[in-house]
Amino acid sequence: MMKHLGRALALGIAALAFGVAPAAPARAADPLEIYALAPLTGPLAFYGQGVQASLVAEAAAINAAGGVHGRNLHFTVLDDQGNPQIAVQLVAPLPAKGVPIIIDAGPAATCYATTAALKNNAVVFCLSTAYEPRGDSYSFTTPFSLEDAMAAQVRFFRKRGLKRIAFITATDATGVAADVVTTNLLAYPENKDVVAVARERFGNSDISVTAQIARIRNANPQAIYALGSGPSLALIFREMRDAGLALPTGTLAVNQNAKLLVSYGPIVPADLEMVSARWAAFSVMGAGPVKDRVAAYFRTLNKAGVSTDGPASLPWDAVLFIADAYRKLGDAPSPTALRDYIAAIHDVAGIDGFYDFPATPGRGLTSKDSVVLRWNGKKQTFDPVSTAGGQAPL
Prior knowledge:
Elements: H1 2-18, E1 32-38, H2 45-64, E2 73-79, H3 84-91, E3 101-104, H4 108-118, E4 123-126, E5 139-141, H5 146-159, E6 164-170, H6 173-186, E7 195-202, H7 210-218, E8 223-227, H8 231-242, E9 249-251, H9 258-264, E10 272-277, H10 289-304, H11 310-313, H12 316-329, H13 335-343, E11 346-349, E12 354-356, E13 370-376, E14 381-384
Parallel strand pairs: 1-2, 1-3, 3-4, 4-5, 6-7, 6-8, 8-9, 9-10
Antiparallel strand pairs: 10-13, 11-12, 13-14
Helix pairs in contact: 1-10, 1-12, 2-10, 3-4, 5-6, 12-13
């Protein structure tokens, strides 16, 4: 049964990749509406708008290839402003409308809020690496975990001989998770020579991190991991610049947005890195199913005039899984049927790597599907600089 499931899903994805319509009866029908939450306004609007643009472009590609049983796929994207309370208000009426699955773009705080509110009344596919679906069988997330991402970055720092690392993180849900991850990473045997010389925190509404940056500078680090996004990341960069703290800096892939970094101008560190999924290493990727999926992703977004930066990549594989679930299960699948279908996916290529949900419940990917990127300010590109998991420089 698992083999047949993987084959069916692979065929559905291949149909999209090569522009061939999956076998389905041709008939006029109402659109298949999928709900998504994203911060379309507020501090994370750059991220949410990237997710929304990708959803629209991917739906158009699926519809051009025959849709889902002859029905056009349509995304209704609700603006939760990245606020958990607003997110809960938006999803609360959906189960009564018969909505069996939603996409929550994150951040992690909204995903925790929506999964708690919906329970088993709908599946939630969260797009935040900081969200941990373990213990909630009705939620999934992609790509790899926050711990996998941070582990790859610290590993790559270490491979470069940078072992004195300062961490500065927000006090939101993602930052709290990052604090736990940092403690875990420092206990890895491979990191026995790595020292966290400073572990500073700040609030997302703070207008200054001068004191935190001063303590980091006095700790004499060789590298910095700055866990912030949007305005909070700009604040960190600005005060690093003002303090003369020009060091290799790692951050989250949510900031993998060329337009965003260009807007920051000269405050962006000259050596800025982040950990992304396999798709971002397309230029150095060997031939195979994953590269085929990534090529289709680039073709689709380029045709639609949508940036192929990090935020746009996040919903891509989730949408493919959801569309194929509807093809398999029919027009009105239950949340339980959708959950069971996604949880059984294994050995199927997406743009982020080969998924195996039975082996990695709720997530499907591991650190082997990650790669370290470096921002090239001159070319305005994100260049792959490591092998999988940050194991070695390219």
